[in-house]
Amino acid sequence: MISRNFKNVLVVSFGFLLLFTAYGGLQSLQSSLNAEQGMGVASLSVVYASIIISSMFLPPLMIKNLGCKWTIVAGMACYVSYSFGNLYPGWYTLIPTSVILGLGGSPLWSAKCTYLTISGNRQAAKAEDGTRGSDVINQYFGIFFFIFQSSAVWGNLMSSLIFGQDTSIADISDKQLQTCGAAECGLNISVNSTTTRPAQKLVWTLVGCYIGVGVLAIIVVAVFLDNIDREQTSRFRGNREPFCQTFLATFRLLKDWRLLTLIPLTMYSGFEQSFLSGEYTKNYVTCALGIHYVGFVMMCFGASNSLCSFFFGRLARHTGRAALFFFAALANFACIIGLLYWRPHPDQLPVFFVFPALWGMADAIWQTQTNALYGILFPREKEAAFANYRMWESLGFVIAFAYSTFLCLEYKIYILLAVLVTTAVTYPVVEYYEYKNPTRPVEEAAYLSHKEALGSGDGKIVEQTKL
């Protein structure tokens, strides 16, 4: 029989699976579907700029007042609004809904990470075999990302099957193929049948399906997820801290040198995700194969990401984080060099799937291990720590999407490579310090001190404390 903590992890995971089946599918299509005047990429820039703003103050306020569960529900509602904006895409619909999504994005992810960290530490405290909280947290994040990352499979499968019904798909000329990849500047892909929006009826069908699964995600979490931090939120509302103390919690954590040193790693997560969903889909897949292939290629990324998230979440307890991060950096480095010199052509169809498969394997490590690392390093400031995570990751997204329409693809690849190298230099410093000075989880420390206080005189009391 599964534990209650594990059940809650599954509920959170399937809720995010449904929600990001919709948003992930839309994000992959924005640079191609709403390419006019760069509107799609601009909306994504606004999304992540808004996440940065919300990361500065909203997560601690919302999580401590509403609790993790209801913060997740509210954040999900903000994401669904973006799907409504895509029913009639334009500057007056996409930008406002992008702002709403961004404001709810950081509280959503911070609440999810906080929830999984609390669940992992609680489960470890109950264990009688000396299981460490960090191991359970790694496992829970691995399970979450295994389920969550498969959303890329279902969301992109929906888009490919629906857009594949478009009868106006035409062949790609040799002239356009010469502009694909990093061969040319890659800023002005000629608009033809491969980059033109599909029939409006098909767009409405797809977005309608996305709205449906988004609403279902809200219902699943609202009904089935336990409110595990209800007592903490009640105490917080009863003994309210000064507003400025909660408001500035995210910034106060920046005094910790470990967080500052992790900024390149966190920003790289935003750079690498935005490159695949924005640059690879547009300048390689849509340019050489057509927009109807974007979904199939991103499905490959999602499947690889999902399976590797589960695998690496379990493998971490045997290899440690550092070895996995090194492997992810090596995989991304190989892909970046390959994309710099590869000239995409429809005759090389398998190659279009090799890059996202390798990228998904690396991204699985960046996501699972970085999230777990934040939860392990900052157990007493979980809300502020994960808010910082979302803020710096989103800054990576914003910068990448902001220069998307101004820089040649070759320069974007060089920037991505430079951030990766910086990450490889700064991250080991934090890892070495943690190895020498391990951080003890709050729940575990409280449990051990409570056990010591009770002593061994009353075995029944000690046994009840374990339970």
Task: Describe the protein in words.
It is a single chain. With 467 residues, this protein is mostly helical. The protein has one domain (4-436): Growth Hormone, Chain: A, CATH 1.20.1250. It is 79% helix and 0% strand. The protein contains 18 helices and no strands. It starts with a helix and ends with a helix. Mean pLDDT is 82; it is low at 189-195 and 444-467.
Produce the secondary structure layout.
Blueprint: H1 4-33, H2 39-85, H3 91-126, H4 133-148, H5 151-163, H6 174-177, H7 200-224, H8 230-238, H9 243-247, H10 249-252, H11 257-288, H12 294-319, H13 321-341, H14 349-377, H15 382-402, H16 409-436, H17 442-454, H18 459-466
